[in-house]
Write a sequence for this structure.
């Protein structure tokens, strides 16, 4: 993707070990300007470790991370000037008002303009007059989201950003993400909520046991994974007609036939149309199904 | 500067409460001094029954004791000891037939030893049984009070202030300062805000130095208030003729470098351990070890060298309250130790993984 473009984040051979335990291993990943990159994996897969190593919060065992062309560890302050971050386990001063906290964090980013901060708080229905300690988990998460975006930085990195948000607020958040992307902001977010990644991300990287399994555009990933075709015939069918390129996992159960079609869909439909069909469904793989496929067969995909 | 304000805003209630409590305790303690002094004036039981006169000779002290007679007594026993309780008397003279005795006390190393003299009447009771009764206790040194063994003179405000500063106030402040120092860093880990604070364009060095500056400044304000309250309280007692304003104030303020060492040491624990419970435990242990070393070194002959390992002993409050010259070398050493500990803490903090 975007071969002529210099990536905002360029990760090469990133490895992090905790003693003998491997957190992440030999990870390569490019994230480009103006895209939302989803970072998908179950708990303990290495998502948080990757993010924290990229931000210089963890020392690297090996590898190289460049953000805006700068070294993630040596030039971390310059990177922080241009990067908003929402950690997975976000917490703040319990006894301080939200407004005090946000103003403080804004000033720490070297920004004095509070316009975006106020606008985001209003949009996410966040009461800035309340003490942080008195907020619900969802509202605390909103504080985290506001602080990640309020300094209007070029890159936003978020670890499980929708934790604690209700579905309505999640939709508002997704809209915000798309708007920020459309303004040219780059967003790198980890998640284990597949629907979320499917809905907002342009590309997804799937990580398992600290190793990257796949990086792909969501649309092309689904395309590669194929479509599930399910047909009910009213009489016996000669299965040999489906022995063709692009048809896999063919199964027949009574009058029902199921198969995965990865290509030649047009030809498959033409052949089916010559039979007597009672019922038929064509199902696109959801990301969840893709995800389960990756994790059920040792990560090799289909 | 904003992080300093946030630190203060987040903790101001605790800081203020401790400051007020300490001011009340110190001020109240000074106000209680006259009655405390009086209470200990007649501390030596039966001392009014004994007349003592002391004549200094070349290498001994001639101590003449004369006591009231007891009609029933056949003779008297004199016990000499290092403490008034006479648990292990170092000398006992029995069968004294008169109601007076002259005791020669050897002087060693040109220092007059402090001794207590207990007079016992020995005779026969009305029931025909042996009867022993204490007439009284007296001392060769003009000191009153219950802690003579420690050289405390309750009639002198300076002694009392020095003792309570050395034992009580400094310990109390040290434990509180250690606690808030650890918390100011460890709570950022525990409450999940360290990641956010350290991914702002503010260096880890600046983060820690601002914390250090905040707590050091608070400690200085605390000591200033306590110093002013002490001066005001002493003034209201009319005791400023014995202790000067500057001595009181400067002695109090000069304890600041001791607390700087404690703050730096606890910061080191906080950034190394990254866990508030462990770090608080270490901080308290550090403070208590400092006091333990000073106390054992002070009270135990042959173990005086232990004091040199305690930062508290470099603030010589005993001498300072008596207006003796300030040892700037020792004060400077405390600043150096604080700086070294802080540099180690900064180095570890800059290189270590941040606990998630």
């Amino acid at each position: 993707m975007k071969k002529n473009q210099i990536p905002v984040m360029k990760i090469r051979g990133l490895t992090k070990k905790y003693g003998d335990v491997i957190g992440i291993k030999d990870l390569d990943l490019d994230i480009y300007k103006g895209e939302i990159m989803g970072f998908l994996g179950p708990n303990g897969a290495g998502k948080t470790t990757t993010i924290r190593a990229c931000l210089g919060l963890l020392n690297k065992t090996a590898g190289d991370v460049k953000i805006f062309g700068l070294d993630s560890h040596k030039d971390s302050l310059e990177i922080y000037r241009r990067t908003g971050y929402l950690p997975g386990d976000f917490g703040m001063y319990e006894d301080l008002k939200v407004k005090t906290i946000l103003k403080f964090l804004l000033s720490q980013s070297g920004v004095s303009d509070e316009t975006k901060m106020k606008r985001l708080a209003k949009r996410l229905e966040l009461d800035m007059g309340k003490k942080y300690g008195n907020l619900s988990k969802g509202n605390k998460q909103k504080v985290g989201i506001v602080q990640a975006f309020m300094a209007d930085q070029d890159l936003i990195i978020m670890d499980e950003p929708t934790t604690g948000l209700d579905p309505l607020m999640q939709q508002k958040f997704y809209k915000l993400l798309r708007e920020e992307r459309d303004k040219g902001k780059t967003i790198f977010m980890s998640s284990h909520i597949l629907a979320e990644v499917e809905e907002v991300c342009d590309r997804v990287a799937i990580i398992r046991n600290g190793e990257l399994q796949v990086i792909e555009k969501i649309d092309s990933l689904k395309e590669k994974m194929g479509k599930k075709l399910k047909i009910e015939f009213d009489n016996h069918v000669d299965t040999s007609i489906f022995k063709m390129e692009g048809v896999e996992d063919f199964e027949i159960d009574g009058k029902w036939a199921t198969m995965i079609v990865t290509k030649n869909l047009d030809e498959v439909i033409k052949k089916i149309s010559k039979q007597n069909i009672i019922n038929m469904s064509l199902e696109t793989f959801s990301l969840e199904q893709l995800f389960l496929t990756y994790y059920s067969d040792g990560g090799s995909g289909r | 500067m904003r992080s300093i304000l946030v630190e203060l805003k987040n903790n101001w209630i605790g800081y203020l409460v401790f400051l007020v409590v300490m001011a009340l305790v110190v001020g109240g303690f000074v106000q209680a001094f006259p009655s405390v002094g009086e209470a200990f004036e007649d501390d030596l039981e039966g001392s009014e029954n004994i007349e003592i006169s002391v004549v200094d000779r070349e290498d001994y002290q001639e101590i003449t004791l004369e006591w009231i007679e007891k009609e029933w007594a056949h003779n008297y026993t004199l016990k000499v000891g290092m403490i008034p309780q006479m648990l292990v008397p170092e000398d006992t003279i029995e069968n004294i037939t008169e109601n007076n005795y002259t005791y020669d006390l050897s002087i060693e190393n040109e220092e007059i030893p402090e001794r207590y003299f207990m007079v016992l009447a020995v005779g026969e009771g009305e029931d025909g049984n042996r009867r022993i009764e204490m007439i009284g206790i007296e001392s060769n040194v003009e000191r009153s009070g219950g802690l003579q063994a420690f050289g405390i003179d309750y009639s002198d405000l300076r002694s009392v202030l020095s003792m309570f500063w050395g034992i009580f106030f400094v310990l109390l402040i040290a434990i509180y300062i250690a606690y808030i120092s650890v918390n100011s860093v460890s709570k950022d880990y525990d409450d999940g805000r360290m990641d956010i604070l350290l991914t702002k364009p503010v260096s880890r060095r600046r983060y820690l130095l601002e914390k250090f500056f905040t707590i050091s400044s608070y400690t200085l304000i605390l000591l200033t208030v306590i110093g002013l309250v002490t001066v005001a309280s002493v003034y209201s007692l009319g005791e400023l003729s014995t202790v000067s304003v500057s001595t009181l104030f400067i002695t109090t303020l000069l304890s600041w470098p001791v607390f700087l060492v404690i703050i730096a040491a606890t910061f080191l624990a906080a950034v190394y351990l990254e866990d508030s419970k462990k770090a608080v435990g270490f901080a308290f242990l550090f403070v208590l070890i400092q006091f333990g070393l000073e106390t054992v070194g002070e009270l135990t002959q042959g173990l005086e060298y232990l004091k040199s390992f305690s930062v508290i002993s470099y603030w010589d409050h005993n001498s300072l309250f008596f207006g003796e010259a300030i040892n700037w070398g020792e004060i400077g050493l405390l600043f150096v130790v604080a700086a070294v500990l802080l540099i180690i803490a900064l180095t570890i903090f800059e290189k270590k993984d941040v606990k998630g």
Residues 167-182 of chain A form the longest helix (16 residues).
